[in-house]
Amino acid sequence: MNLIRQRRSIRQYRDEDVDEKTMEALLQALAWSPTGCNVHDLFFTVIRRKSEMDVFRNKMSETLKLLIKTGILRFVYPNFWRYMDELQNGVDVIFRNAPHLIVAASPNTAPCREADPWIALSYFDLLAQSFGIGTCWCGFAVHAFRWLPSLKRRLAIPRGYTIRAVLLFGYPAVEYKRQTSPAPFQIKML
Ligand SMILES: Cc1cc2nc3c(=O)[nH]c(=O)nc-3n(C[C@H](O)[C@H](O)[C@H](O)COP(=O)(O)O)c2cc1C
After folding, report:
1. What are phi and psi of 179, to 5 degrees?
2. Are strands 100-107 and 134-137 parallel, antiparallel or unpaired?
3. Distance CA 99, CA 51 (A)
């Protein structure tokens, strides 16, 4: 219960790569993720070094600025106005200065191609948080990699696979003292 109730999105990270042993444990655990019809065929790309993340960060921010300037962004991502001020003030609104990122892709033919990657990264998310690693889902990057073929190529996703889910992670630079008090979802008991 504590693990679930204390999980938070982390948007501030220490300027430090996650240590080898923890990274290895996190990546090994991925193999136990369930997949629909047991099509055990997910593909993950992990950005292991902050220096590599910086390549993604710089290219992303350069492209977003161009898309804003030309007015194209509101067509490709109508929700983007929420981030406009931060972006114009040089905030890394997409990758949140995270030192690492994991991308989950599934084969286009897999029966549960939409669900499998999210399940795998949800397991990864909780395990990471249990190790004291901060995480943040990066739904924006799932979209953005579609308009950025150069970054997509750099992720080395095999042909026939689609990027479905992206999670940022690293040592958190903030600590939340208290849990949130979310409103309960609707639940029907039969
Ligand atoms: C599918 C999904 C996509 C998300 N995409 C983003 C994102 O692109 N950027 C971001 O900062 N947070 C993103 N989030 C994090 C949510 O904003 C966050 O989980 C929510 O505000 C609740 O806050 P908490 O995680 O601290 O409890 C995403 C979460 C989910 C589940």
Report:
1. -75, 165
2. unpaired
3. 8
Pairing of strands 161-170, 134-137: antiparallel
Residues facing 168 on adjacent strands: 101, 136
Which tokens belong to 31? 């193999």
Q: Whose CA is nearest to atom 30 of ligand 1?
A: 137
Residue nearest to atom 31 of ligand 1 (CA): 137
49-96 pLDDT per residue, tens = 999 999 999 999 888 888 888 988 888 877 777 878 887 788 898 999
Comparing CA positions, the residue from 170, 116, 123, 168 lying closest to residue 142 is: 168
What are the boundaries of each domain within the chain? 2-48+96-170
The CA angle 101-47-133, to the nearest 5 degrees, is: 50
Q: What's the DSSP call for residue 174?
A: -
Query: Distance of CA 104 to CAs 23, 28, 113, 163, 171, Å?
Result: 16, 14, 11, 6, 21
Taking domain 2-48+96-170, whether its CATH number is 3.40.109.10 is answered by yes
Ligand 1 nearest-atom number relative to CA 140: 8
